[in-house]
Design a protein that fits this description.
This protein is α+β, with helices and mostly antiparallel strands. It is built from 6 helices and 11 strands.
């Protein structure tokens, strides 16, 4: 079954308009939900709303939203107040600029959506924009209104699709100068860098996302199944961390203990490079 469109509108750049819809590029994963219980009889714990001043339970109809503008000082904000400042829900992703993709740090990106052309008339312009972005190595930066909020967003080609990813604004990114970080290109020796690069090469491989699993959730489900069956769940084995304080020694030992399959993969890559040179 085709995924449901979350938004319908168009992409606009110059005088070109491309009718599109947005489909979430991620699928919600089954998560393990837990309830708070009374230890004595395993009955559900119900949270109640209490007024700390009067020490009485408060009904939902008597609950309002307030913004604290000073210590213990609040201003009440109503649904009508929120409606007054709501951004008009335009149905257009307005491209403001095309920027080099390599210039945008990953930490700016947030939630991805597949962009799907709507109707035969949109196919040609969609393909043209996608392939132009790929050929120039650029992202299309613009704004879009989703759920009554204006988002900064980037448009980029991913295989056969265009993907629109909402972005964080610059003021939402913590400044690195506020952190105690070592200077780039300093603090290590040439021999250490040589071994580090050898280790990176030994552990390098193709990106295969299916190889990675949420092993913690898998172990948690296994433990829950055992308890439901009345069995004592076995404790997971925790590997003893290697206690190596010397950086050079740690790098050498890491190279010596690399998995065999990675060592073979490294050899294949080296042989392939030699063959290509020959």
């Amino acid at each position: 079954m085709a995924p449901r469109a979350l938004w319908k509108g168009s992409i606009s750049f110059g005088l070109v308009t491309v009718p599109i819809s947005l489909v979430s590029a991620t699928e919600p994963r089954e998560t393990l939900a837990f309830n708070l219980l009374h230890r004595k009889d395993l009955s559900r714990i119900v949270e109640k709303r209490f007024c700390i001043k009067e020490d009485v339970e408060v009904r939902w109809t008597d609950v309002v939203k307030g913004y604290q503008y000073a210590k213990d000082q609040y201003v009440v904000v109503t649904d009508e107040d929120f409606a007054r400042v709501r951004v008009p829900a335009t149905q257009t992703f307005d491209i403001r600029r095309f920027v080099p993709a390599a210039d945008v740090e990953d930490l700016y990106f947030n939630s991805p959506y597949y962009v799907v052309p709507q109707g035969k008339s949109a196919v040609k312009a969609y393909a043209l924009l996608r392939d132009a972005l790929r050929a120039t190595g650029r992202l299309a930066i613009g704004t879009i209104v989703l759920r009554q909020r204006e988002h900064l967003a980037a448009l980029e080609p991913v295989d056969a699709a265009l993907v629109l990813t909402t972005m964080r604004y610059a003021h939402e990114i913590r400044r690195q100068k506020d952190l105690d970080l070592p200077a780039a290109g300093k603090g290590w020796g040439d021999s250490e860098m040589k071994l580090a690069r050898q280790l990176v090469d030994a552990l390098s491989g193709d990106w295969a996302p299916a190889e990675y699993r949420d092993t913690y959730s898998d172990a948690l489900r296994k433990m829950i199944r055992a308890k439901v069956d009345g069995k004592e769940p076995a404790a997971a084995e925790q590997p003893e961390p290697a206690r190596v304080t010397d950086l050079m020694e740690a790098l050498r030992r890491s190279l010596e203990k690399r998995p065999r399959k990675l060592a073979k993969a490294t050899a294949r890559r080296r042989n392939g490079r030699k063959a290509a040179v020959a």
